User: Which sequence fits this backbone?
C-alpha cells in the first residue's frame, strides 16, 4: 500500500514533472551553448591565423590592441568572467559562499561575457583553452533554470551548479561519463539522493 501511494503521489505531481522537464531542457541548452562557444572560438582563431598569414606584421599591432580591449571590457562590465572558469564554479559551490554572492561567479550574464571574452582573446591570437571556460559557461546556463523551477522544488542551486559544471566537461570533451565522474569527484560529493538521477540525466543529455 505504501508503494502504491508513493507511486500515485510521484506520478500525480504535475509541477514536479514540469520541474524535471525544465532541468532536462536546460541541460540540452547547456550542451548547445558549449557547441556554439566552440564554433565561435574555432572561427575566431581561424580568422587570426588568416590575418597572420596575410600580413606577418599585423599581429604586432592587432594582438596588443584587441587584448587590451578585451581585458578592459571584462574588468569594467563582467569581472566575474575573468580566469579559467573552473575556480569560479568551485567558489560558487563552496559552502561558505553566500547564496546572494554566487551570481558574482556564475550566472547566465557571465556565461555570455565569457563566450565573448574567450572568442575575442582567440581572435587576438592569445593562447586560451576552451575546456575551463566551458565549465563556467555551462554552469551559468544551467543555473538559470532556477528561475523557472517551483519554489517548493527539491532541486537545489548547488545541484544545478554541479550538473552545469559537469555538463560543461561532458559537452566540451563529448564524454558524458567523464562529466559524471567530474561531478562526483571534483565538484560535489553531496548530491541529494532524490535528485541525483535527474542531475546525472542532465549531464548525459548535455554531453
Assistant:
Amino acid at each position: 500500500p505504501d508503494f502504491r501511494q508513493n507511486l500515485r503521489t510521484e506520478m500525480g505531481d504535475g509541477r514536479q514533472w514540469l520541474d524535471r522537464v525544465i532541468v532536462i531542457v536546460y541541460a540540452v541548452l547547456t550542451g548547445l551553448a558549449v557547441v556554439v562557444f566552440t564554433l565561435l572560438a574555432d572561427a575566431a582563431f581561424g580568422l587570426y591565423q588568416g590575418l597572420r598569414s596575410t600580413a606577418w606584421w599585423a599581429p604586432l599591432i592587432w594582438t596588443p590592441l584587441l587584448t587590451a580591449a578585451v581585458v578592459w571590457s571584462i574588468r569594467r562590465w563582467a569581472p566575474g568572467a575573468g580566469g579559467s572558469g573552473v575556480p569560479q564554479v568551485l567558489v560558487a559551490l563552496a559552502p561558505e559562499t553566500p547564496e546572494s554572492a554566487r551570481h558574482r561567479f556564475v550566472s547566465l550574464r557571465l556565461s555570455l561575457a565569457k563566450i565573448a571574452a574567450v572568442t575575442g582573446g582567440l581572435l587576438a591570437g592569445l593562447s586560451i583553452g576552451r575546456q575551463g571556460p566551458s565549465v563556467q559557461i555551462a554552469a551559468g546556463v544551467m543555473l538559470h533554470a532556477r528561475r523557472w523551477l517551483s519554489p517548493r522544488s527539491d532541486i537545489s542551486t548547488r545541484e544545478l551548479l554541479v550538473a552545469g559544471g559537469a555538463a560543461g566537461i561532458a559537452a566540451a570533451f563529448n564524454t558524458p561519463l567523464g562529466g559524471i565522474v567530474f561531478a562526483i569527484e571534483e565538484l560535489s560529493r553531496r548530491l541529494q539522493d532524490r535528485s541525483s538521477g535527474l542531475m546525472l540525466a542532465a549531464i548525459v543529455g548535455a554531453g
Notes: The mean pLDDT is 87. Residues 142 and 164 are 5 Å apart (CA to CA). The first helix runs from residue 2 to 12. The chain is about 75% helix and 0% strand.
